[in-house]
Amino acid sequence: MTGRRSVSAVTDFDQVYATTAPRLVGQLYLMIGDLAEAQDCVQEAFARAWLRWDSLTDGRGDPVGWVKTTAYRLAISHWRHWKAGVKALRKHGVPPDTPAPSPDAVALRDALAQLPKAQRVALVLHHLNDMRVEDVARELRVPPGTVKARLSRGRAALAVLLADWHTDVLATEEFHA
């Protein structure tokens, strides 16, 4: 809906929610066996219902039935994703532990975060995704010269930021040595 809702529509929605949501959560919980999941599915169903409340309450539909069906379908969808995950786990085993990022990776992430977004995106696409300047330009819908300028400015800024980081690390290491 693009306009404002009437007070009566808001009141109707609030009333339907207050009287049916707890019961729906209980029913869905009994069906799927996960209270948090049941609460999430009912909440999502009501959020979707709110977006089309006028059409659900125009006298031709059953808003409570629509919410029940939507919540149930959401639960089934989540269950299917969970089941697929269990199947993959059985087939491939537990994924190996992911090691913590190295101090260099953390420093690079932090330095990139300080750059303007345009420079950061150009640097990541070009250097970390191995994209040619022309491909980056096409992806970002800018001229190749703009990409080259962003790369140049970004590299210069990174050099300063990472030099400061490197100096800080050396000073800390020497202090603790």
TrEMBL record:
TM segment ranges: none
UniProt key word Transcription: yes
Ranges of residues in domain RNA polymerase sigma factor 70 region 4 type: 107-158
Domain RNA polymerase sigma-70 region stretches: 17-81
Coiled coil region boundaries: none
UniProt keyword annotations, A-Z: DNA-binding, Sigma factor, Transcription, Transcription regulation
UniProt keyword Ligase, yes or no: no
Cited Pfam families: Sigma70_r2, Sigma70_r4_2
InterPro entries cross-referenced by the UniProt entry: RNA_pol_sigma-70-like, RNA_pol_sigma-70_dom, RNA_pol_sigma70_r2, RNA_pol_sigma70_r4_t2, RNA_pol_sigma_r2, RNA_pol_sigma_r3/r4-like, WH-like_DNA-bd_sf
Family that this chain belongs to: Belongs to the sigma-70 factor family. ECF subfamily.
The protein's name: SigE family RNA polymerase sigma factor
Organism field: Catenulispora pinistramenti
